[in-house]
Amino acid sequence: MDEAIDVNACLRRWKEGDEAAAEELIRHLFPVISKIVRTHLPRRDDEKDLVQEILMKTFAKLHQFKGDAPITHWVSRLALTTCLDRLRAQKIRPEVRRADLTPDESDVFDAAWLTGSSPDASEAIAARDVVDKILASLSPEDRSLILMVDLEGRSLQEISEATGWSISKIKMRLFRVRPQLRQMIRKLEERN
Amino acid sequence: MNTREDEKWQGLLLRSTSTFAGEDAPPYGFITGTLAQLRAESRQQNEFERIGWRALLTSLAALVIAAMVTLSVDFSDQSGDFEPGTKSVVQLENIQVS
Fold this sequence. Notes:
The complex is a heterodimer of chains A (192) and B (98). With 192 residues, chain A is mostly helical. Chain A contains nine helices and no strands.
């Protein structure tokens, strides 16, 4: 087990009404949830509120946690599902055009090659905004899948465990979404 | 095979990597706020449970009262003012009913 705290003892203490145990759990789970929310939701979405919402769901469903896997795995899945629900609720999926990019985003897009120098903070934010705009036109599931593969470098097996999707479903989604992504980037490269 | 678009995409991800990193510790006030919300939810749940129990006991009491009233009415029906074997005025006065 990779737990830095004794989760079972914490759970027991929390059930007995010990708030210090709840605080320990929150501190333990916060980085895991924060990472998932920051990866799977666009940058401007209210991250703090969503992390809190996921923690509330976690505490409400703690009785369902069987303890046969680390609690971080269980919470990761809950966090990912909540992020996907949030993305589904947004519904509008506009296709990004070159005119939609700000001058900074446009510069970053033109300079975005693997051999580029390491960016400063503002370039990183501009690049992230371009990434969010491109991903916004994909379905929530495709968006998360692309990030798990391309950004986090997760294997199909790991993605399957994190999402509950079958390997063949993941392969099919990837096969379908990759050309979509290329098409969007090609369109962005066209300067009207 | 990597296409030009794939390289561009990877370049964008590489440049934005730092913005995807999560926070290691909660921001100031986050834990206090979350604990307060947990307390509020727990209080609300207890309140719902209390209301639920009260409603259940009230329904049971109403059911018992209804059963007792039914039984007592039934009992009073069986012990009428007529002689044993006589159930109505018609039978008592031997009135011809056509």
